[in-house]
C-alpha cells in the first residue's frame, strides 16, 4: 500500500482510508463481527487510516474500533476522530458544541472508548456558530501539548475558516465530501488548502453508495438509514442520478473494472494530496474498493469520464437544505 504524508507535518497515511461510520448503524442495521473483520482486513492490506466520530452510534463506533485494535500495534494505526456533534438517546441531532471545555471532555471519553493513549487527528465535525474557530483549534492545540492528540484536522468548513484555523495551529487535513457528483470544493476550498499545504481526506467518494454501481431504484433504505432523507435518493432525482451511473458503467466495463473502482480511482487521480475514505462495512466491499488502486486512468479516460458525468450533473443537493444551511463549507 502506497503512503502519503498529510500536509508537511502530518502522519504518513495509506493511499486509501477506511471510514467506519457505516459500521454503527448510520446506513441501517450493521453486523458487529463483520465490521471488526473488515477493519482487520483493511489493516492487513496496509490501510492504516481509520476515520470515526465520537457521535457515530453515540460512542458505538469508537468502541468497535477499540475492540478491533486489541492486540494490534498502536503505532501502525492512524486514528482520526470527529467531535462536537450532539445527539439525544433517540439519535436526534441537537446541534454542535465546540467550546474548549466541551472538547477536552469529549476527548477524554474518546480515549477511553478507543482504548488508546492518544488520538492521531482530532477535528470538529462542523463549525460551531457560537464558538470562534480560533478557540476550538486552540483547545485542540492545548491537548496536543498534553499528549492526548497529535494533529489538528478540520471538517466541512469554508476557505475563510480554513485560513483562520491555520493561523492558530498547523492543520494537517480537511475532511470534506468529494466525488464525481460532489465537486463544490474545486471552486475555492481545494485551492485554499493547496495554497496552505493542507491535505484533503475525501469522504462520500461513492456518494453514500449512489454511484457505487450497486444501488438500484426502489432499493429500500431501511429504518435508521439516513439516505432515506437525502435529496439525491429521492424519487424526483434518482432516475437522473442512476442514469449517470449507467454512463460510468460503460466506462468501467470497457476497462474491465467496477463502477465503484472507477469512481474511487477518479478521486485519487485528482492529486496526491487527496486521500479517498471508503465507507466499506463488509469485507467484499473493501476488497472491491482496494482494487481501485490498480485502476490507471489515462488523460483520455479522464476526458471520457468528464463527458459522462459533467460537473454539477447530479440531481439534488448532497444534504437536505436544513443541514446545508448550517454547513460552513456551503457558504
UniProtKB/TrEMBL annotation:
**Its EC number(s):** 1.1.1.65
Q: What EC class is this?
A: oxidoreductase
Which Pfam families does the record match to this protein? Aldo_ket_red
Signal peptide positions (record): none
- Originating species: Rhizobium mongolense
Q: Which Gene3D superfamilies match?
A: NADP-dependent oxidoreductase domain
Q: Keywords, A to Z?
A: Oxidoreductase
> What's the name of the protein?
Pyridoxine 4-dehydrogenase
* Gene Ontology terms for molecular function: pyridoxine 4-dehydrogenase (NADP+) activity
Q: Which domain of life is it from?
A: Bacteria
Q: Which residues form the NADP-dependent oxidoreductase domain?
A: 15-307
Q: Which InterPro entries match?
A: Aldo-Keto_reductase, NAD(P)_OxRdtase_dom_sf, NADP_OxRdtase_dom
Amino acid at each position: 500500500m502506497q503512503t502519503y504524508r498529510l500536509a508537511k507535518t502530518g502522519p504518513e497515511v495509506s493511499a486509501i482510508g477506511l471510514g467506519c461510520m457505516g459500521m454503527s448503524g448510520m446506513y441501517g442495521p450493521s453486523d458487529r463481527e463483520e465490521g471488526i473483520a473488515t477493519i482487520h482486513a483493511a489493516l492487513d492490506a496496509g490501510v492504516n487510516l481509520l476515520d470515526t466520530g465520537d457521535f457515530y452510534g453515540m460512542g458505538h463506533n469508537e468502541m468497535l474500533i477499540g475492540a478491533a485494535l486489541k492486540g494490534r500495534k498502536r503505532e501502525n494505526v492512524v486514528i482520526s476522530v470527529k467531535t462536537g456533534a450532539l445527539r439525544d438517546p433517540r439519535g436526534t441531532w441537537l446541534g454542535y458544541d465546540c467550546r474548549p471545555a466541551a472538547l477536552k471532555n469529549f476527548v477524554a471519553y474518546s480515549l477511553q472508548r478507543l482504548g488508546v493513549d492518544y488520538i492521531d487527528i482530532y477535528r470538529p465535525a462542523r463549525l460551531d456558530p457560537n464558538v470562534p474557530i480560533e478557540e476550538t483549534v486552540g483547545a485542540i492545540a492545548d491537548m496536543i501539548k498534553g499528549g492526548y492528540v497529535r494533529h489538528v484536522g478540520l471538517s466541512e468548513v469554508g476557505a475563510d475558516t480554513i485560513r483562520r484555523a491555520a493561523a492558530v495551529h498547523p492543520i494537517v487535513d480537511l475532511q470534506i465530501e468529494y466525488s464525481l457528483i460532489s465537486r463544490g470544493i474545486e471552486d475555492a476550498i481545494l485551492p485554499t488548502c493547496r495554497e496552505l499545504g493542507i491535505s484533503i481526506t475525501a469522504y462520500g467518494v461513492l456518494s453514500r453508495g449512489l454511484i457505487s454501481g450497486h444501488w438500484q431504484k426502489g432499493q429500500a433504505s431501511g429504518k435508521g438509514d439516513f439516505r432515506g432523507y437525502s435529496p439525491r435518493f429521492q424519487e424526483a432525482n434518482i432516475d437522473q442520478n442512476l442514469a449517470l451511473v449507467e454512463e460510468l458503467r460503460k466506462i468501467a466495463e470497457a476497462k474491465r473494472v467496477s463502477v465503484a473502482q472507477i469512481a474511487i480511482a477518479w478521486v485519487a487521480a485528482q492529486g496526491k494530496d487527496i486521500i479517498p475514505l471508503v465507507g466499506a462495512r463488509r469485507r467484499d466491499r473493501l476488497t472491491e474498493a482496494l482494487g481501485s488502486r490498480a485502476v490507471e486512468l489515462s488523460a483520455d479516460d479522464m476526458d471520457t469520464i468528464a463527458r459522462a458525468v459533467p460537473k454539477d450533473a447530479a440531481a439534488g443537493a448532497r444534504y437536505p437544505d436544513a443541514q446545508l444551511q448550517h454547513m460552513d463549507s456551503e457558504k
